[in-house]
Amino acid sequence: MQMPDPDSRILSRRDAIVERLRGCLPADAVISDPAETRAYECDALTAYRCAPLAAVLPRTTEEVAAVLKVCHDEGVPVVPRGSGTSLAGGALPTADCVILGVARMTEVLETDYADRLIRVQTGRTNLSVTGAVEEDGFFYAPDPSSQLACAIAGNIAMNSGGAHCLKYGVTTNNLLGVTMVTMEGEIVELGGGHLDAPGLDLLGVICGSEGQLGVVTEATLRILPKPEGARPVLIGYGSNEVAGACVSDIIKAGVLPVAIEFMDRPCIRACEAFAKAGYPDCEALLIVEVEGSDAEIDHQLGLIKQIARAHDPVELREAGDADEAQRIWLGRKSAFGAMGQINDYICLDGTIPVSELPRVLTRIAELAAGYDLEVANVFHAGDGNMHPLILFNANVEGELAKAEALGADILRLCVEAGGCLTGEHGVGIEKRDLMADQYDPADLEAQMAVKDVFDPGWLLNPAKVFPLDVSEARRSARLAAE
Amino acid sequence: MQMPDPDSRILSRRDAIVERLRGCLPADAVISDPAETRAYECDALTAYRCAPLAAVLPRTTEEVAAVLKVCHDEGVPVVPRGSGTSLAGGALPTADCVILGVARMTEVLETDYADRLIRVQTGRTNLSVTGAVEEDGFFYAPDPSSQLACAIAGNIAMNSGGAHCLKYGVTTNNLLGVTMVTMEGEIVELGGGHLDAPGLDLLGVICGSEGQLGVVTEATLRILPKPEGARPVLIGYGSNEVAGACVSDIIKAGVLPVAIEFMDRPCIRACEAFAKAGYPDCEALLIVEVEGSDAEIDHQLGLIKQIARAHDPVELREAGDADEAQRIWLGRKSAFGAMGQINDYICLDGTIPVSELPRVLTRIAELAAGYDLEVANVFHAGDGNMHPLILFNANVEGELAKAEALGADILRLCVEAGGCLTGEHGVGIEKRDLMADQYDPADLEAQMAVKDVFDPGWLLNPAKVFPLDVSEARRSARLAAE
């Protein structure tokens, strides 16, 4: 993946820039020693690495504003970073950038149970937001697989979802307001503690904007009462298509489970070997979980089992107790780790209309066969967010390139089916060139015009989201106009 | 309420403009006879009236685009209109404008139960969206009181809520995508049929933008499975403050009713006289409704009754059967009509944090006493959307002005309490001058900069939303720059 050449004028002013940053922050919050900046050279898309000019670790919104003012003044690109768990290279540095890490900004600023909200600094991890309120019976709903590590800042940047977003929505449905610092260093408040905030809804534009428009330092999040209980049911089928049709029928029937997870044979096999969850030997597995009181769970699972039976399942097993429920989930939750033990893989992230599931699964298998590669499917089926894993052998020359080509074909298939390139991982550097498949030039132009408004110098999170040639042309034009 | 002087250059070109509009539409879709344009002289804020230059009633998005191209070319202001039910004057014409009414655009374009969505033309009424899917067991959640008449176009413009939005959210939470025509006549698609649409979320900016940014002609709406059943409970208290505290405790406890409606004594008395709902003679009444299976309803109502009892209610009555449930609701739903039989009133619409409810209710009573006026409160308490009714006698000179002054004070109180000027009725012309209380000049400037992008000539829905002097200055400046 090509990155732009670093700006030599910035590199030559490195010491002066670092000196100015030290003027804004405590001594231990500015990292410029090359041995230490290496820690920020990549995120979870580890194939691409580049150490930044420097990294800063502010503790307050005001410190973030001070840093951004300096960088704006010096014309230095800034790459915001949460916990560095991006699978799309969303926090990949350039050699001439300052990494602005929010990892030390972890405070809970306010909990308000009467208004059902929590306000946190955005360096706080996803799971520790729930941690702050669970003793009082509440939780924060979006639950990406990386929730132990990932920061709210990154969740907002990528509009993250998770296994339970079928019922509770993704980040944008649970985000009430933010404090954001613009590239100029101005502190702005967007949204607030209400269902219906005053003024134009600019909050929505920020959520999912991948650090292109500003640095979100504080967030007001909706918290929900913990359900009384939850219970999963395991349903096995003889083909992906039948399992897909069952998912489609469950949604159509109007039942609203909290999660419908889908695994196909390659994935089932790996997970079973890894987690001993007692999965049946079949082509496709669904884990469907419902929540509520015991009576409600019984009722909903009754309906779901009735629909499942109509599709002639190989296996249909309701969790008898908490232990079995945990084992059913353990297999699914360890899927990525389990796959990694036996294969190299690329994890894709696209969305499709739920109704297209059977057709898309069939077509993915055909595409994979054309490349002589295997694809394992494990994903949130209920909301159409797919995570196909393309398996390959990194030691065989040319296999990575082949896998990447197949990945691009699958994402184009998602777009063609009426879906989109990314569900929750973001575009980052990984999918920037595919944006031209999703959007025509006028659409891309409109999105870049929005960036022009928030970040006229194109200094925030460079070389991401937009096709590189397009965004570099834009950046140069803006520079020339200054 | 002052309106800008009509542009005499436009008035003098009236015949030529009408002629060009006739070139875009069938003969019966262009209304220019003054006897007929009178039908469009006001919306539900009937105190202000002004017949438009002409009115057009297109049937398709393409016809809307053709009309807007002509108006853009001629520099004629356009006022989009749904069903004309705005309580804030959101569809009030100017004498030099073309009313663009979507009332004939009522088609259902697509229903898709597997993806749980419906796509409609936006002239369709709110209730008839549910009408199109209810036989199949689905419904469209937002339910403004005017749902029999109001159009989806207006719901989107004002981001409407309704009695049930505590559980299901307001329009923005149920809107998946729109087809919009810009003032230049360009047709754009925003959002789509997914939880997580690709690209920047510009859809959020459109929802609630009161016809300032474009004309929304088609909408993709989320539909939900109809719950098995619902049951209300009626709770009476000896004071507004105690009822407010009970609401706050229900929310805090994590129960999620579909509705918590609040009525105070003046309102209870009027509704009881009108609807014979069997309401007790007390200071404050709550109607709390929960949904689900019988078992779930029993369980949730059990919790709610427990909380209610802790506040020592005057009355606590669960609906015994469907008939009683309907009678409980009949009183609430006829509240506005019942009040109108015995008083003139102004209906306000502000939001506050739920936790501030008791304090705000006390302060409203104090403010009203200061003006020697009575305020009746009936509103969606669960989500903090208040609708105080200021009662006055229109036949007494000066009472309307006094009532309007009290209304402004109450809305300022909402802002001061951390809420906002409008929950679901919008700013329109009614509250445009109060925008300066909610926002400082820089905030207003930012919102107007967004309008600059979508509608550079400031032709769409003039004299609304922004304080008149500010928006007129902006409009003149843009005209001069052309």
TrEMBL record, chains A, B:
Keywords: FAD, Flavoprotein, Oxidoreductase. Its cofactor is FAD. This is FAD linked oxidase domain-containing protein. Pfam families: FAD-oxidase_C, FAD_binding_4. GO terms for molecular function: FAD binding; oxidoreductase activity. Gene3D superfamilies: 3.30.465.10, 3.30.70.2740, Vanillyl-alcohol Oxidase, Chain A, domain 4. The keyword Flavoprotein applies. InterPro entries: FAD-bd_oxidored_4_C, FAD-bd_PCMH, FAD-bd_PCMH-like_sf, FAD-bd_PCMH_sub2, FAD-linked_Oxase-like_C, FAD-linked_OxidoTrans_Type4, Oxid_FAD_bind_N, Vanillyl_alc_oxidase_C-sub2. It comes from the Bacteria.
